[in-house]
Amino acid sequence: MGNLWRNYFYYTRQDIRGLLVIAAIIAAALTSCIVVRCVHDDSDSKPQDIDIEAYDRLAASLNRHDSAGSEWRPRPHHRKRRYTDWRLPVAPPAQFDPNADDSATMVMSGLPPYVARNIVRYRAKGGTFRRADDLARIYGMDSALFNSIRPYITIHPTPEAETLHATAVAYHPVEKYPEGTVIDINAADTAMLMKIPGIGRGYSAMILAYRRRLGGFVSPSQVDEIDNLPRGFAKWFKVAPDFSPGKININRASIERLRDHPYLDFYQARAIIEWRRKYGDLRSLQQLSILEEFSDSTLDRIAPYIEF
Fold this sequence. Notes:
Layout: H1 2-8, H2 13-68, H3 78-85, H4 103-108, H5 113-124, H6 143-149, H7 159-169, E1 183-184, H8 190-194, H9 201-214, E2 237-238, E3 248-249, H10 255-260, H11 266-279, H12 296-302, E4 306-307
Parallel strand pairs: 1-2, 3-4
Protein name: Helix-hairpin-helix domain-containing protein
InterPro entries: Endo/Exo/Phosphatase_dom_1, RuvA_2-like
Keywords: Membrane, Transmembrane, Transmembrane helix
């Protein structure tokens, strides 16, 4: 029996060393847990004490403010009132000249910034204001705004306006041709055209522009083709027998040059360019008659102005 117990509790030297190491580890772990717990308890107690002391001081301070009757709470609309207090005062409307003043001056006179910018842009494109009512046409200018600023609009005479006024004062009526007069339509200038009854500077400019695009008139009746020109002026014109109109080289002209002629539109000019690209130079206008873009009347009208 004694041997049995001895064998059961017998440990070798290595076993004893292992048990000692395990015991040392367990002791170290227990010691560290005890130390950490103590430190944690100390740290928890100190902030609590500090917070209580700070709270006591804050409460005492608030009590002093309340007893003194001072207002310490922030006002709910403090930010809004501060912004309003610092807003720049709006200047009362002042006189301004829309032909001369800059946008800043007009804004200070009561115009919204975008309307002032539109006025400046209008002037930059060559526009001028001859009277106060002209401002009502500016984009963004409604009737209410215009009526409010109209008393402050001051338009000073410009050198151009004074020149036009002086010209109008010195204007003398143009002497007109008597009935039955006939002039060469391809040699007439603006002064000659304005002597025809019913033709002023505008109509004369339209006739000269159409003559340039055509290359010259081959018949007085072509005057009736001009858009917005009243009919009946052909009787005042003639074409010199030896006149030869300007011609377009149909095999060399660009599509822009072709379409600029009054008798050719974009699609006809493009058809000519496509023909040249596919088949080479044209030899006669009859080659174009097979294309749907060209009627016989179109080819007859364009024939005097084409060369190959």
